[in-house]
């Protein structure tokens, strides 16, 4: 079964934008709630690459494609779309769990975030690879 | 010439031997005297009265506190009039107030001109200053939020701290001074203070009370941040010592009028 590539791209970008916004707002809330300003820099340095890298790839390609005048519609296998969407959703959910559940762990927040890279990196790798089908292939 | 050299060498050996024997004798003498002191100690330790009345001395001057306040005797609920009072009466009032406020395991120390009473380390709420609920009031462990949305939202922060306090009462006619030594954490503090005894020895308790004797409450605040092993000493606090005593409900039993004015 085939799906229009442009539609798939738009849906994926919507998911990432909404997910990132939620994560960003929670992170901002945690920042405001933190009284010791020395504790702020490192969590943000951890957070930003996790979200910005896939998002900037998607938005960059989307903008680049919009400038190409090509009326011919392209399709991709729906399996890839479902895979990318599921992996993206799971990855965003994992980051959400990490930035909320650290309050239950008796460990310095930044140490816990660094530790979380153990489970975030493999999923991030898979997610970015699957997104490549929509945002890199055929450029 | 050779005989002179030989004589000189012989003299040198004799002097060396003499020096060695002096050193050996000195070492022997001091080790014997140490033994003598030990045996005297053993003799004294056989006397049970001495053991009972032995009370650890609090390091003097006392460790630097976060805050302090003097408790006026006129505001205390004392049974007898001041001229008839003994230190035991003052101890009874403070001890009863502490026990009513939930404090147990009190430690007594001897200080010049009186005694000191130290409470167990207690967790308190940083925003209100109230004692923590009983189920985690006396634990120093990290507390994760309860599984309800409000608690989790409140706890969402990159740092989270538990706040603790220790209260030291000094009852003495001497001027109490604070040392310049700063404590890093609670372990450092408790190592320095050492263990006291659980009751006030009668020898000190039977001493007469005079108006020169002042009762001062010294508050030592500690903060244990998430992921830290030890509770770090806090030199500055948002609460005054009076507020601490009120919110720990000590002053409520000790001096209700003072508590009303303090809060």
Topology:
The complex is a heterodimer of chains A (139) and B (263).
Chain A: E1 2-4, H1 5-33, H2 41-67, E2 75-77, H3 78-101, H4 109-135
Antiparallel strand pairs in A: 1-2
Helix pairs in contact in A: 1-2, 1-3, 2-4, 3-4
Chain B: H1 2-46, H2 48-53, E1 67-71, H3 87-100, E2 107-111, E3 114-118, E4 122-124, H4 149-155, E5 161-172, H5 186-193, H6 202-205, E6 214-225, E7 232-234, H7 241-247, H8 250-254, H9 256-262
Antiparallel strand pairs in B: 1-6, 2-3, 3-5, 4-5, 5-6, 6-7
Index terms:
heterodimer, A: 139 residues, 77% helix, B: 263 residues, alpha+beta
Question: Could you characterize the architecture of this molecule?
Answer:
- The complex is a heterodimer of chains A (139) and B (263).
- In chain A, 77% of the residues lie in helices and 4% in strands.
- Chain A is mainly α and 139 residues long.
- Chain A has one domain.
- Chain A has a two-stranded antiparallel sheet with strand order 1-2.
- The mean pLDDT of chain A is 87.
- Chain B has two domains: 45 residues; 208 residues, no CATH class.
- Helix content of chain B is 39%, strand content 17%.
- Chain B is built from nine helices and seven strands.
- In chain B, strands 1, 2, 3, 4, 5, 6 and 7 form a seven-stranded antiparallel sheet that branches.
- Chain B is globular, with a radius of gyration of 27 Å.
- The N and C termini of chain B lie far apart (98 Å).
- In chain B, 31% of the residues are buried.
- About 11% of the residues of chain B have low confidence.
- At the A-B interface, helix 1 and helix 4 of A face loops of B.
């Amino acid at each position: 079964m085939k799906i229009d590539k442009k539609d798939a791209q738009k849906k994926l970008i919507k998911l990432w934008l909404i997910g990132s916004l939620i994560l960003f707002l929670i992170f901002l809330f945690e920042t405001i709630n933190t009284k010791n300003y020395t504790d702020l820099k490192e969590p943000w340095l951890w957070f930003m690459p996790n979200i910005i890298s896939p998002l900037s790839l998607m938005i960059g390609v989307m903008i680049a494609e919009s400038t190409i005048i090509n009326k011919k519609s392209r399709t991709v296998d729906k399996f890839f779309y479902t895979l990318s969407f599921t992996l993206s959703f799971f990855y965003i959910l994992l980051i959400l769990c990490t930035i909320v559940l650290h309050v239950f762990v008796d460990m310095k927040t930044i140490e816990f975030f660094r530790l979380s890279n153990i489970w975030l990196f493999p999923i991030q790798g898979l997610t970015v690879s699957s997104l490549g089908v929509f945002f890199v292939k055929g450029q | 010439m050779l005989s002179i050299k030989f004589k000189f060498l012989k003299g040198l050996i004799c002097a060396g031997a003499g020096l060695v024997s002096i050193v050996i004798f000195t070492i022997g003498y001091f080790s014997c005297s140490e033994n003598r002191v030990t045996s005297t100690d053993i003799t004294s330790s056989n006397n049970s009265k001495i053991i009972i009345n032995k009370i650890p001395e609090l390091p003097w001057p006392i460790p630097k506190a976060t805050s302090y306040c003097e408790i006026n005797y006129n505001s205390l609920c004392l049974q007898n009039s001041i001229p008839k009072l003994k230190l035991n009466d003052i101890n009874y009032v403070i001890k009863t107030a502490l026990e009513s406020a939930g404090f147990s395991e009190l430690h007594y120390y001897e200080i010049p001109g009186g005694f000191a009473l130290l409470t167990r380390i207690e967790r308190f709420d940083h925003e209100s200053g109230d004692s923590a609920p009983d189920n985690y009031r006396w634990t120093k462990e990290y507390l994760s939020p309860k599984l309800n949305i409000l608690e989790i939202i409140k706890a969402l922060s990159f740092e989270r701290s538990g706040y603790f306090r220790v209260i030291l009462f000094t009852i003495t006619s001497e001027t109490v001074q604070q040392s310049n030594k700063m404590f890093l954490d609670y372990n450092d503090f408790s190592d320095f203070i050492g263990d006291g005894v659980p009751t006030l020895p009668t020898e000190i308790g039977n001493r007469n009370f005079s108006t020169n004797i002042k009762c001062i409450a010294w508050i030592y605040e500690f903060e244990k941040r998430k992921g830290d092993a030890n509770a770090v000493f806090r030199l500055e606090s948002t609460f005054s010592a009076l507020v601490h005593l009120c919110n720990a409900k000590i002053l409520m039993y000790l001096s209700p009028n003072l508590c009303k004015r303090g809060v």
